[in-house]
Amino acid sequence: MKKRIMIMSATIIALLVIIIVSASFYFYNVAIARADKTFLDGNPDLEANSNIDNPFADSKDWWARQSLQEWSLTSDDGLKLHAYYLPAAAPTDKTVIIAHGYSGHSELMSGFAQMYREDLGYNVLLPDARGHGKSEGDYIGFGWPERKDYLKWIDLVIERTGEKSQIVLHGVSMGGATVMMTSGEELPPQVKAIVEDCGYTSVTDELTYQLKRMYKLPSFPLVQSTSLLTKIRAGYSFGEASALEQVKKSKTPMLFIHGGGDLFVPTEMVYELYENGPEQKRLFVVPDAGHGMARQFDPEGYDREVTEFIGTYVQ
């Protein structure tokens, strides 16, 4: 009898291990691996405010008319990364580096590029994150390995536009997390200000939230097991990928933006980020705006806040 119980227990444990490992590979392939993210199609949390008119719809036509330069660099781990560069209409030392969101690419940030170039007179650099667009990479880093890529993009801007460069980082969603994660690194003095829009506190927090919201599953043990698999296959763990810990170390002035109706990256995350952010900071929450919709929901307020904030530090 005792032997039978031991065999049954071992069998159950083995089955649980197989289920957890299989689930980890499934969630890695869904969330981390480079692939079409069809699981997000029809997600109601991403469709909030979808009935709001887009005042920046013409930015795609504007983008198509631009004479874009193509820049590239090699990451520390050997990936060839791609970016588009658009010089300002008049020579300037001001450059913005714009970070796109999860499963996106640089062209999707054309509305922000248009604002910075046409309204503010900036040079614009739009990288494709590793695993996105024209950049190499077979996984998504959620901003953590990308932070080192952004250090290299910053250095390249300084190399090509001069030591007097004044640089702003502006990111949305995963791009917001990327610029926050970059903020905790040793940045050159040419980086004057950072704008983060609807970024998450950490990869663990965001995936825990989404696992419960989308799949009705608890975080343990799937977040931990998938994190281990990600460490093995992509070189980083969810626990280390924390925008919150990075902003605690940041000394760069930072504007925190979020939609008050964001259910994809919950609004409460921005309050914790802001509270722990650098000494020079500002918070702008757009009531009722869904994920990544703050500018579309309140274009005048958004552009005013960005212009006033970065204008304090970029002369």
Can you put this structure into words, describing what you see?
With 315 residues, the chain is an alpha/beta fold. It contains eleven helices and eight strands. An eight-stranded mixed beta sheet has the order 1-2-4-3-5-6-7-8, with helices on both faces.
Low-confidence stretches: none
Distance between the termini: 81 Å
Instruction: Please give the share of residues in helix.
Output: 40-55%
Overall pLDDT metric = 93
SSE arrangement, N to C: HHEEEHEHEHEHHHEHEHH
The helix-and-strand class reads alpha/beta
Task: Calculate Rg over CA atoms.
Answer: 21 Å
Largest sheet: 8 strands, mixed
Which strand-content bin applies to the residues?
A: 15-25%
Number of helices: 11
Question: Numbering strands along the chain, what is their spatial order in the largest sheet?
Answer: 1-2-4-3-5-6-7-8
Assign an overall shape.
globular
Query: How many individual β-strands?
Result: 8
